[in-house]
Each structure stands twice: as structure tokens, then as C-alpha cells.
Amino acid sequence: MQQNRSLYRDFPVEIRLPYQDVVQLQDWSSRHMRLLDFAETTLRYLASLAFSDYRSRCETPSPKVEGLLERLGNRNLTFGRHLELLRVSATAIPDPLIPLPEDLPEAQTENLRRFGSALDALQAAVGGLSPGSPASAVDVATYVQRGLAGEAVNLDWWRGWERLVWYRNQVVHAGANNWPFHNEGYVEIMGPLLHQALVDLITQPAIAEAILAHPLASVTLIEQSDAGGFANWMCGEERGEWFEKEIVTEAPITDRWTSEHWHGTTASTYILSVLDGWSIRGLFWDLANGLPPVMNMRAAESTEVSSPLKEAPRRSRMVKDCEGRGTAPGTCGEFAQGILVDGTPFHVTCPINKSATVVAKLGPADKSSIIGLSEHHRKLGLAIDYTLELLDLGTVEVVVRHWSDLDIAKGMGSSTADVLSGIRAIAAAAGEELDIVTQGKLAAKVESSDGSMYPGIAAVNHKTCELIDVWDWYPEFVIVMLVPNDIVNTPSISFAGQQALASEYQNLLENMNQAIADRSIVDFARESTRSAIMNNQFLLNPYSRILSDRLEDFGALGVNVGHTGTVCGLLFANTDKGRVKASDAYLEMRRLFPDLKDVKVVTTPYCGASSGDDGGQADEARDR
Asked: pTM of this prediction?
């Protein structure tokens, strides 16, 4: 394991020594669990700093902080409670020691985002298991590789810690959560990702500066200074080196905090600041020793203490004028859609490299409002409302900027992409991370939705956005997508009689599963063509019939359609030869159908797993 030099050498002993212990371990089985312990130790230290800073610098106690202490009582603080106390303490005072989300400058957190992508992929895999299926069925290496190959998860510092708290709970309660912690190769795969994510979190420049610029120290001597006032001799450690500093104050530092339960003595530990010269910032309470009593606390007046803080009005968890961005992919229809014998509606997703993006700026307001939406963005507005309600953000003004390269009412998943982008943008602005399942539930409240919240290709109940099947391998296509001028209003489509075909649809999905198991892009494309033709009974797509009869002419593997839209796609393997044939077909579609609104060439997600017949043998497989 490659150590981080700064963590190993410069950070406070409370962080440095546990990290050194982890680095010296020889196997990932031991390192992984010790890394989780190290994460909890570090977060407890950060929470101790933030809480102590609040108690030392806030004249009037915060109901949120003191209320949390009262609710916790004498219970031990969990990993998640440390994070909660860190957050409420940082928001309770101006200029907190641990910066708020809007005060954290952009920093390179590539390893943190990679860790988040791996977690999302594993979470989707576990969520896609059939009822009763053990976690041992999850191929950890394949799913993690798939997650890392996809779009990186957008995790900032605060949401990174939230995700880490969630991950620790999954691992510690792996049996109850059906988490694949004990699967072969798990710790060797996830251990390095966890380590790198933790390094990103702790060494984030603004956070590292906050820690390193505020060393802890104890009093060795207090005496009158020849220059006037009192010399407080403080002994501690800064960047791995011991020091003794004379800090002069108007009164002994032991006189600054004199509350019965927030009382500095010569035996206390203090937070110093090395910014603009040495000073004493606060009294330090180590949460490893438990919680302090709930109290009304007033700091003694001092020229070195920040201005008295009047109790801020209660505000939402959202911070002032925060901005978040959300992006979600569109689709080229679906690879299949129908109903199963048990009555479950399903579709097999066909995400593409076209997308919608929403940027949402949130600010406190007397009355909630959403600004910037067009008339056809009603569903996006609903998604924003539902997300605000779920996150309990209170009354806020939301200013929305939206753009998309997806056509509307064509079967390209434009509504779902808008909805997901809005959900993700609001969550990002609020400093929250919503897991895939929660995103799906919110989207399903708005409308029946494409399953594009899930990475890769998956079978999804489009009424509820619940996973039906998720695969460790899926085919990679180049699609020549025909976009007609016609539009479709989904509610106007009648699927009467579809239930009578449930056994056929069941067989179709089973065949797709078998194609996945065999890693056969040819067989998968054949079932996609079958679904497209079956759907003509409910929504006629003339292009699907014409193209399916001429697949060999174009060198295509199959077709797919928007089962509730008008798009139609010609499917080619994403190989060198496949891309050449797709290019030729693109030009031919332009010639054959000049009245189309557009012809686009798009691709489905990269899988990253070892190839089946979509790899070097794909072109030979087409001729079978």
C-alpha cells in the first residue's frame, strides 16, 4: 500500500498514528477493517474540533447542537452521529474551523469519486439480486470495473463522508445487508479504493489546512508578561514537530472559559491557531471521552474571541445560495418492454451518450418558488418539489438552468433525464447524496420512468423503478438512431391485450438473460428485434419492420425501438468493423429516409468486463 507522506508525517498524532498502523499491515484483509476504524477515528477528531470551536466561540448556544446532545444523552457516538455533530457544529457559527460546503473550494477528488462509483455499482448489483439470492452471487471485480468505467459519481467532501458512513454500515452488517464483503477478492479490490478515497477526504486542501493550522496544546506555565498581560506557555505538536510557544493574552487563558461545564484549566487541552501569528482559538473537548453536558454557555469577553454570536434564525439544512449540478443519460428507446407472467411490467434499458443537465441554485426565501422552467418542464418541476420535500429543505427559491440534447416525445427518455437531473441537482446543492434506489422512487412519483438511474443496461419495472435484473456483463452497441418528425403522447397509447402475451415476454427476458450469460451480443440483439416487432401491435413503428427485414443489407445485428415513442435504432457491435458498418448505415439511412427529422449515431455504456462475441469475434458472429 502506497502511503500518503503528509498523513504519515505531518498530521496530528490522533490521525497520524492510526494511519501509520494501517500502512504497516501486510494484507488487505486486515487493512480494510483498520481503514474503516481509521476513518471513524479521523471523523471523531474533526467533529471534536468543530464542536469545540462552536462551544468556544459561540456566545449563545445553538438549539440544533445542544438539542442533538440532549437527544443523544449518554449513548456512545456512532460514526454517523459524529458526522451529524460535525455538520451542525460547523453551521452554528460564522467562519467555522471546518469549512461549510459553499466555502470549500473545488479540489481534485478523483479517488473519492472512483470510490463512489464502485459503491454505486455494487449497490446496484446487490439491489438487483433475486429475492433470497445470496451476496456471493455478485461478481465484485466485474461490477466494480463497470462502475469505474462509467461516469464518475459527483461527490464533494461532505457527501463523501456520508457515503463512507453508509459503506461502513454495509460492511459491519454485511450479513444483514446481504453485502458481498466476504466474496473472493473483495478486500483486495475495495481496500485500495477505500484508502485512496480517505486520503482525498483528509488531505483536501482546505480541510488539511484547517487541521494543520490548528494544533492542539496544553498549558505548561502561566505568568505575567513583561510587556503586559499574561504569558501562556503552550506545549504541543505542529506538523510532527514538538513546540513550546509563549502566547500573550490580556488575562490568563484559564479565565476565558469559566462556565461550570465549559471551563478551561491548566490541565485542559486548547486549540491554537498559527494563522497570522500564534493565538489561542478555543478550548478542546475530545469526543473520544464522551459527550459534554448540555448547557447554556457564554464565553467571557476577550479581544481574542470572535464577535459575540446572536442566535441565528432557524434555517434549512440547505446553506445559503448553494448551487448543484445534475446530469442523466437519455435513451434510444428500450431493448425490450412488456409484462411478465406475474403481472410485473418491465423494460430493458438502452442508455446512450446523450443527456440532460440541470443546474439548480438554492437560496432561502419566505415562500418556495422555482424560477426558470418552461411550460414543458412540468415534470422537472415536480421532481424538484419532491426532492425538496424529501430533504426537508424548508422554504427555498430554486433558480434552474436546463439544457438537453434529447428530442422530446420521441422515446429518447427526455422526461426521465430531466427528472433525474433535477433530483441530482437539488441533492448536490443541498450537500446531500441520494442513492440510486431513492432516485428511482422519486422519479416514479413523477411518472413511469426509464431505468436510466441505474448504471449500464438493466431490466427495470418502469412503474416503480425497481430493479428486476442487473448483469455483470452487457453488450456494447453503436446505434444508428432514426428520429422521425412524429411525436407520441405516452398516455394515449393503449396496451390492451398485452397481458395475453405475458408468457412471450417472459420468454423474451429469459432469452436476454441467457444471451447475457453466454455473452452473446448476437442473441441479445435478436431478442431486441423480437420485442420491437411485438410492440407494433400496440404502437406501430414502420421503420422497425422495414429495417428488421433488411438487417443483412446494412450489416446490423438487430433493431430496437421506443416502445412508447417513435425512435428506431439499428444495432451494431461497438468494434472497429461494427463502427465502419454503422457509418455506412448512417449515410444509407439519410438517403433512404430523407424526411426524417434526424439520424444520429449514438453508443450504449461501456461495460469493461471481458468481451463475449461482441469482442474480436463479433463480426464473424453476425454471419452465424
From this structure: 0.51
